[in-house]
Amino acid sequence: MPELLRVKNVATKIQFPLLDATTSDYFTGTAWGSLTNASLEAYSWGDGTNAVVLAIAGTPTEIGTTGLWSLSLTQAELNPNAGVDDYIIIKLNADEIMEQALLINLKAELYIETLIARLTSARAGYLDKLNISGNVAGATALSSVDSAVTSLNTTKITSARAGYIDKLNVTGTLLNTDNASTFMVDSGA
User: Fold this and answer.
1) In this predicted structure, what is the pLDDT of residue 158?
2) For the chain, where do the domains classified as CATH 2.60.40 start and end?
């Protein structure tokens, strides 16, 4: 069951898929009002409280012919039980579709406040460093290696090993079996 984060007391639109009861594919092409035995039930509750019925005025509407549907929820619907409740569950059902349940968590403001509290000046500075332009990690120098690395078997070149290759922004001659004598130390013997 998907959990959607929304801000309490603010109108919103939610999107969700509906699946065909026979094929399990996305259900498309039939308006909600034309479905057999269509029902939309909603309940709200808070931490440690019992669920109460919540009236939803809107009707699910398909977005084009995608099998994705949307439902508009009013400000009042997102302030259930006079603002006491923090959760809403909406159950959608009809003979033609698989039952779908959507959980709406109205504690989004708490998550946002927590994120803001954790965003220290130092952490904000780290984010500033993500605005990088130009040649990063010698990408130009590695362009000739890029196509060869891409074609290698991924069981031999893991993402960790590919990261090591990215760090090889080396200039000059590298040691290999053909030029090993160039790098040998004369021991004077």
Assistant:
1) 66
2) 3-110
Q: What is the identity of the amino acid at 107? A: K
pLDDT at position 151: 52
What token pair was written down for 10?
A: 């603010």
20: its two tokens: 């065909």
- Which pTM does this prediction carry? 0.59
How far is Cα 13 from Cα 85, in angstroms, rounded to an integer?
Answer: 19
The CATH number of 3-110 is 2.60.40
- The 3-class secondary structure across 50-114, one letter per residue, is CCEECCCCCCCEECCCCCEEEEEECCCCCCHHHHCCCEEEEEEEECCEEEEEEEEECEHHHHHHH
> What mean pLDDT do residues 61-74 have?
95
Query: Is the model more confident about 140 or about 89?
Result: 89
SS3 for 181?
helix
